């Protein structure tokens, strides 16, 4: 793929929050961005940003440059905001690359292939741009990691290898030859992680006998049963749902036996003859490099018992129960499709649901459901200078916008950028999940009805904010909380009052209701739902490659956001559910303190890593009324100060998340002298919030951020800053703008009050 193909893509933003890359429009004569994964595998989102700059200039507006040298911290904030203004999408959100994981797009490619390669799903341009992505991320050892910063794993390698072949790269292409050497050196495809095995079974390059049972019958258990799939973390639940359907159907690509590419893959992927592989005995095999959470003996036992059931249960009984399980599963899949406007909760169930609906209809593309599914595939695709990837979500629009607004609010410069701020506020306003009489007519909102909600294990949605767009519609505790905080911080500003619709109090009350109902008995907050299961569910984690996926735990991030939001709300509306709010805050603070680690830090589960967690822990305590200089805050500051680098910054490597220990030595492989701007900003925000007396350390951190600001007002994309399930990195390309702006804004506000 030439750079020209990738460069020409354009992005539109309707309806609100939708990010779609289209067929390239000619944009000749642009220099290539020189992406080099060996130097840094994190792309800088140059394509999208360049397009914004062009559009900005075409409208006759100027982009900040070297002729503007900020003379104060406040002015550096102003310049950074001026640059951020250029980047804003027309509907008010900030678009960006939300890629990182390598196993998502291959899943889509497999589904595209087995459903007959519909061009409406992946056009030839898209196919090429995807192949380009897979090629540039192949590592020197021939393999691929689970995500862009990960060393090669069998999971990543088998998925990416297969995807490249399905996208038309020939068997003897040097990339494929190298890929095979890697895969064979770890024993061949039978040693890959179980999620890759599932796709291989669907494609017909592995026998279903090689896969542990995924019984749809589990859905038929009574709700009170101690182990019930309805109690799983929603992402785990929604992924195993289509998996159990496809397993129950034993779906295999209909042309597998005649397609020469499948025959070839069967000989490429294994070290032995395909026909001779003793499939059933390979079920438990997994390469050491993939085995992040080894399958627990209890799960092994369960797998054994289920295998006996599959083989020996009286077939009449088994088929009868199976048919009922499958019926419920496909009904549930259909409900999820409707509730999310066919976006689905995430990229994995998106493609598996799409395949399930195809199978349900007797393997035809000609159904309304399948067409609606295909129409929502581009929502997940993004193009950066490393090619086209499938993102971890349909974007991070809502989340980034609510942080950006809070950062602006602290900077006190909103009235200098009234259009930008008002547009962002309007985006948040439109993104809150509402069930108005009009929207109730849409099938998606029929599910707010109580019986349906219960049937499909959904929490209350109304009043919540999603991570991405209203169309996605799954509310999340901390997204709701950050949305609410942003609205509270902005709504009285003049630029908002003059330009934006008033958000009625009722809507804020609904947001608070969502937050209050999400508090767990331990006082903390989980992600989308209350904690419904038990810790021992983790013994039944079948995934090998991910940690802590079985239930929704209380997290420091979700807890801090929720607490600080209801605290801020309580200041504004002291009479509303006053006692409940106060009790929730007290319990939440106790929870946050209870999970502070010995060394004063908090482990971050969704960002890298202790710096992120500690920022949340500190803000959570401070914003919910913890006295300054308390013991917990003092210890947190001590922790952060002990990690400051010689150049004044902070930096943490992704391996912190994976190893659950501060990556002191690997800090920011792709950063600068061990420091990275995002980590530095988090540390500074925390130190300032906690009122650290070490003003000199804070000043050095601020100077570091200033020294890294580029001529445009931007900062560089450095190491990966997001994570999920302990083991997978995910890109947040907005963070390099939002958090430095926020930290500098706070500094300017607290230490430079009188500067221009
Ligand atoms: C996300 C993205 C947002 C994130 C925050 C809101 C930042 C966090 O504070 C709570 C957890 C949450 C909602 C989150 C959970 C896990 C997600 C959905 C993701 C990291 C985006 C992608 C990831 C999802 C599980 C990826 C698909 C892979 C599977 C293993 C199913």
UniProtKB/TrEMBL annotation:
One of its GO terms (biological process) is triterpenoid biosynthetic process. GO terms for molecular function: intramolecular transferase activity. Residues 78-384 form the Squalene cyclase N-terminal domain. One of its GO terms (cellular component) is lipid droplet. Residues 399-748 form the Squalene cyclase C-terminal domain. Keywords: Repeat. The keyword Transport does not apply. Belongs to the terpene cyclase/mutase family. This is Terpene cyclase/mutase family member. It comes from Diacronema lutheri. The lineage of its organism: Eukaryota, Haptista, Haptophyta, Pavlovophyceae, Pavlovales. The chain holds residues 165 to 920 of 920 of the full protein.
């Amino acid at each position: 793929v030439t750079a020209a193909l990738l460069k020409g893509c354009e992005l539109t933003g309707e309806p609100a929050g939708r990010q779609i890359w289209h067929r390239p429009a000619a944009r000749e004569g642009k220099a290539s961005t020189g992406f080099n994964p060996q130097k840094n595998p994190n792309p800088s989102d140059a394509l999208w940003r360049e397009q914004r700059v062009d559009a900005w200039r075409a409208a006759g507006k100027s982009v900040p440059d070297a002729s503007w040298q900020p003379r104060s911290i406040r002015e550096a904030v102003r310049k950074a905001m001026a640059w951020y203004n250029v980047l804003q999408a027309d509907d008010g959100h900030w678009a960006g690359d939300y890629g990182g994981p390598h196993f998502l797009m291959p899943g889509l490619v497999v589904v595209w292939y087995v459903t007959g390669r519909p061009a409406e799903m992946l056009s030839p341009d898209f196919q090429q741009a995807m192949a380009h992505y897979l090629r540039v991320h192949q590592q020197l050892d021939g393999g691929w990691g689970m995500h862009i910063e990960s060393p090669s794993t069998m999971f990543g390698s088998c998925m990416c290898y297969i995807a490249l072949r399905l996208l038309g790269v020939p068997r003897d292409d040097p990339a494929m030859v190298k890929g095979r050497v890697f895969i064979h050196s770890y024993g061949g495809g039978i040693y890959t992680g179980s999620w890759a095995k599932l796709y291989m079974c669907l494609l017909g390059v592995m026998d279903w006998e090689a896969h542990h049972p995924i019984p749809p019958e589990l859905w038929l258990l009574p709700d009170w049963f101690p182990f019930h799939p309805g109690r799983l973390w929603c992402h785990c639940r929604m992924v195993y749902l289509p998996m159990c359907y496809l397993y129950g159907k034993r779906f295999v690509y209909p042309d597998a036996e005649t397609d020469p590419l499948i025959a070839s893959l069967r000989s490429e992927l294994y070290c032995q003859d395909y026909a001779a592989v003793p499939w059933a005995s390979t079920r438990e095999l997994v390469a050491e490099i993939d085995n992040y959470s080894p399958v627990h003996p209890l799960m092994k036992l369960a797998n054994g018992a289920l295998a006996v059931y599959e083989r020996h249960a009286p077939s009449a009984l088994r088929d009868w129960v199976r048919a009922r399980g499958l019926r419920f599963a496909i009904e549930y899949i259909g409900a999820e499709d409707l509730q999310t406007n066919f976006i689905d909760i995430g990229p994995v169930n998106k493609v598996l649901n799409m395949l399930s609906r195809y199978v349900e209809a007797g393997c035809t593309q000609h159904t309304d459901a399948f067409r609606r599914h295909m129409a929502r595939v581009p929502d997940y695709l993004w193009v950066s200078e490393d090619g086209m990837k499938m993102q971890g979500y349909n974007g991070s629009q809502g989340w980034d916008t609510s942080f950006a607004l809070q950062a602006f609010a602290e900077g006190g410069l909103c009235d200098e950028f009234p259009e930008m701020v008002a547009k962002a506020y309007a985006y948040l306003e439109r993104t809150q999940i509402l069930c108005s009489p009009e929207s109730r007519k849409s099938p998606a909102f029929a599910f707010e009805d109580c019986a349906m909600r219960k049937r499909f294990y959904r929490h209350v949605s109304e009043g919540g904010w999603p991570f991405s767009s209203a169309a996605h519609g799954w509310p999340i505790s901390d997204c709701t909380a950050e949305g609410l905080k942003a609205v509270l911080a902005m709504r009285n500003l003049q630029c908002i009052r003059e330009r934006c619709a008033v958000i009625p109090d009722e809507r804020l009350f609904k947001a608070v209701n969502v937050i209050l109902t999400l508090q767990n008995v331990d006082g903390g907050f989980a992600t989308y739902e209350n904690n419904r299961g038990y810790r021992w569910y983790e013994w039944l984690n079948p995934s090998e490659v991910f940690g802590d996926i079985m239930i929704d735990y209380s997290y420091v991030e979700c807890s801090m956001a929720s607490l600080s939001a209801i605290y801020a709300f309580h200041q504004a509306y002291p009479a509303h559910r006053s006692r409940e709010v106060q009790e929730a805050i007290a319990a939440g603070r106790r929870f946050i303190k209870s999970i502070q680690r010995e060394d004063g830090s908090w482990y971050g589960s969704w960002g890298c890593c202790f710096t992120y967690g500690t920022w949340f822990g500190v803000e959570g305590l401070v914003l919910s009324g913890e006295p300054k200089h308390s013991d917990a805050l003092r210890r947190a500051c001590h922790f952060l100060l002990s990690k400051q680098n010689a150049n004044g910054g902070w930096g943490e490597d992704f391996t912190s998340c994976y190893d659950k220990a501060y990556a002191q030595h690997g800090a920011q492989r792709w950063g600068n002298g061990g420091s990275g701007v995002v980590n530095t900003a988090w540390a500074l925000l925390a130190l300032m919030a906690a009122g650290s007396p070490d003003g000199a350390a804070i000043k050095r951190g601020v100077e570091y951020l200033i020294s890294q600001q580029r001529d445009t007002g931007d900062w560089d994309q450095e190491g990966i800053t997001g994570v999920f399930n302990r083991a997978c990195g995910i890109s947040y390309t907005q963070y390099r703008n939002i958090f430095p702006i926020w930290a500098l804004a706070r500094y300017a506000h607290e230490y430079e009050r009188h500067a221009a």
